[in-house]
Design a protein that fits this description.
The complex is a heterodimer of chains A (about 270) and B (about 400). In chain A, about 75% of the residues lie in helices and about 0% in strands. With about 270 residues, chain A is an all-alpha fold. In chain A, helix 3 crosses helix 11, helix 7 crosses helix 10 and helix 8 runs antiparallel to helix 9. Chain B has about 400 residues and is α/β, with parallel strands linked by helices. Chain B has two domains: about 200 residues, D-Maltodextrin-Binding Protein, domain 2 (3-Layer(aba) Sandwich); about 170 residues, D-Maltodextrin-Binding Protein, domain 2, CATH 3.40.190.10. Chain B has 19 helices and twelve strands. In chain B, helix 4 links the parallel strand 1 and strand 2. At the A-B interface, helix 6, helix 7, helix 11 and helix 12 of A face helix 1, helix 4, strand 2, helix 5 and helix 13 of B.
Chain lengths: ~270, ~400
């Protein structure tokens, strides 16, 4: 009986794994070949040309990757700076209209960004923010902040402010309380919110395009036209790099935040 | 949310302090009064932002390497290619026009057809500048319709010819035995090989062009469409729409569905699912074979009574910051060496805009020796079988009708 359920479980896990990983395998194969006609099970010829194009500095892919990282980092820092106090307010304090605001925070991802951004674009031009990295960072806050506020609100709801109150009773100042009590408690929340924000910002295409006006060239902007025009080899190469870069950031963040002492989650488990 | 918007607003205000350097009107008009030497001098050391569709890595590479290095070497002008297509840069320019931004970031555009018309109607272009370019006079036939009109629309000097494209059909030599020579044979071939032909659904650019060929052949040529009202056009193209509907059972998947883009269709052709493809670029097959995207046996053909061709152009936006540098770049792109390099299938393979008669002996022989690649037809063959485009504003009507009659 137990065997059976174990087999069932394993089959389920592996088939899920297969469904997730198999497309990536196909992608990896496409990154090394220009054509893969039916009925060949594997491509007949292999080439490194896609990777050569990617690595060739004149094509600007590496530079775009750098810009994407820079913008992603800026957005992550700004979004967290906004979301930590907002999350605390929504998670810990009670005030009239709180539930409404909680839903309202999600508005930017419910309303189609296209509709809003065209209006924002005009204003950004007026303010001289279009065609610049600060402008792009600002506009990336729109689709990212709802996620980070939401995540941190839940974290604060679980943590509560009792520990902080205790520290206050013991005479800790506001900053001491934040640095030594609150921050360690919400680390895991910051980690997941940060990763989420970074990845959403990293994959923005339309907003960057419109506000950056082509002067800010991020990685998706070089990737998209190539995918769109059906260049499967190059699209595969760029997609793999894209996935790799996002993974890289995730791992760095995890290492950074989880290093040294084990930060335990037992407060809300 | 209120807090956030307040925060954003404050940030906005902080960031905007100190922005706004503007180019005066006088400077701009006087540029057109200057002679070429002065313009060249003014361009030195500045940067051209060249906004162009970025979906073809061969073209991208040519611009990033050959064009960029030549401009730097010869004129000390830096070229920055920006991968942004017409829909997006027109949006951007419209926005900038609306708020009166005068120091725009786009200096040079790759444009034609409907987009040019839109740009002109909204006063988004600067000019007329084409007479200023020494190479325009030197190498191009300045009286030819193909250089002075764009999809039937007079360019009035607001565009400089950059490249030419012509529609070709692509087939796989290993599979197609009797290559159709004309429209009737093509239709017969489609009927004899059910499921092996299709075309991308309009408004895909290439698919839409294919539909125009059917219109030309089914309704008696293109000339009639130059002065027709929209309603008359709708009426006139009906026989062609009916023909396309009648063909459906012989198409791939019995015409129940069409590839959405030419990219999809090319991949279907590569995979052997259909036996013909098409392209609005005569060197497409050669360059795709080179990239390994097409089988080695891919070849191209045109129809006896002609396939549609167009010229694509360079234009300068009304608020370009580096107009002098844009002029220098446009002039360089019209030169024999740039056009010749562009024509070479190793670099791009696009048809040149110069007129053969204006070349000197050496250039002529250079051109005659150029190997165009096994899948590209000679310029002579293409020229003999070329018909012009329809007026740009008819294209959307055709697309609507296609959707109505055929696409459903």
């Amino acid at each position: 009986m137990e065997d059976r359920s174990k087999i069932l479980r394993l089959t389920l896990i592996y088939s899920l794994f297969f469904v997730l990983v198999f497309p990536l395998l196909v992608l990896a194969l496409w990154a090394f070949t220009g054509s893969w006609p039916w009925p060949g099970l594997l491509p007949q010829s292999w080439t490194l040309e896609g990777w050569k194009y990617f690595l060739n500095p004149v094509n600007g892919a590496l530079e775009a990757l750098q810009t994407s990282f820079l913008i992603g980092l800026g957005v992550t820092i700004l979004a967290l700076a906004v979301s930590i106090p907002a999350g605390k307010a929504l998670g810990v304090y009670d005030f009239p209209g709180k539930e409404f605001i909680k839903i309202f925070v999600l508005a930017p991802i419910i309303v189609p960004p296209l509709a809003v951004t065209l209006g924002i674009h005009i204003n950004f031009i007026k303010f001289g923010l279009s065609d610049s990295i600060p402008g792009v960072i600002l506009v990336h806050l729109i689709p990212t902040i709802p996620y980070s506020i939401r995540i941190l609100t839940n974290v604060f709801e679980a943590v509560g402010n009792k520990m902080e109150a205790q520290a206050q009773v013991l005479g800790a100042s506001m900053w001491q309380r934040f640095i030594h009590v609150t921050l360690p408690l919400i680390y895991p929340g910051i980690l997941s919110a940060g990763i989420m924000v970074f990845i959403v910002s990293f994959s923005q295409y339309f907003l960057t395009f419109l506000i950056g006006g082509g002067q800010v060239v991020t990685f998706p902007m070089v990737l998209f036209p190539l995918v769109n025009s059906g260049d499967r080899m190059l699209a595969a190469v760029y997609s793999l790099v894209f996935i790799g870069a996002a993974l890289f950031f995730t791992i760095i963040m995890e290492r950074l935040f989880k290093s040294g002492e084990e930060r335990s989650d037992h407060f809300y488990l | 949310m209120k807090k956030i918007s307040l925060f954003l607003l404050i940030l906005l205000l902080v960031l905007t302090v100190g922005c706004g350097n503007q180019v005066t009107e006088e400077e701009e008009t006087s540029l057109l009064d200057q002679n070429w030497e002065q313009i060249k001098k003014q361009a030195e050391g500045s940067k051209v932002n060249f906004y162009m569709w970025g979906g073809n890595r061969t073209i991208n590479h040519w611009v990033d390497t050959y064009v960029a290095s030549q401009l730097k070497e010869k004129y000390n002008v830096e070229l920055n290619r920006v991968p942004m297509g017409p829909d997006d840069y027109l949006n951007k320019l419209l926005g900038e026009k609306q708020v009166g931004k005068t120091d725009g970031s786009i200096d040079l555009l790759w444009i034609n057809g409907e987009n040019f018309k839109t740009a002109r109607e909204n006063d988004l272009l600067w000019g007329p500048f084409v007479e200023k370019l020494p190479n325009y006079e030197k190498y191009l036939d300045t009286d030819a319709d193909k250089n002075t009109t764009d999809f039937g629309e007079p360019t009035k000097g607001y565009e400089a010819p950059y490249s030419r494209a012509q529609f070709v059909f692509v087939y796989d030599q290993a599979k197609v035995e009797n290559v159709p020579q004309n429209y009737e044979e093509l239709i017969a071939w489609i009927k004899e090989h059910p499921g092996k032909f299709t075309y991308p659904a309009p408004p895909d650019f290439t698919g839409s062009a294919f539909v125009r060929h059917v219109i030309y052949r089914e309704t008696g040529g293109y000339e009639q469409y130059y002065d027709m009202t929209k309603e008359e056009v709708r009426e006139a193209i009906q026989p062609a729409m009916e023909k396309l509907a009648e063909l459906e059972p012989y198409l791939w998947r019995k015409g129940e569905t069409y590839p959405a883009t030419i990219a999809q269709m090319d991949n279907m052709f590569t995979d052997g699912e259909v036996w013909m493809s098409m392209g609005y670029d005569p060197s497409k097959a050669t360059s795709k074979i080179k990239k390994g995207n097409y089988p080695d046996t891919a070849r191209t053909f045109v129809l006896e009574k002609g396939t549609i061709s167009n010229t694509n152009f360079l234009a300068i936006p009304f608020n370009a910051t580096h107009k002098a540098a844009a002029l220098v770049a446009a002039n360089f792109l019209e030169s024999f060496e740039a056009q010749y390099s562009k024509y070479n299938p190793d670099n791009w393979g696009a048809l040149p805009v110069f007129s053969y008669d204006k070349l000197n002996q050496e250039q002529k022989s250079q051109l005659d020796e150029l190997d165009l690649g096994k899948a590209t037809l000679s310029q002579e063959t293409l020229d003999e079988h070329s018909v012009p485009e329809l007026p740009a504003d008819i294209v959307p009507i055709i697309e609507e009708e296609w959707k109505e009659v055929v696409g459903q």
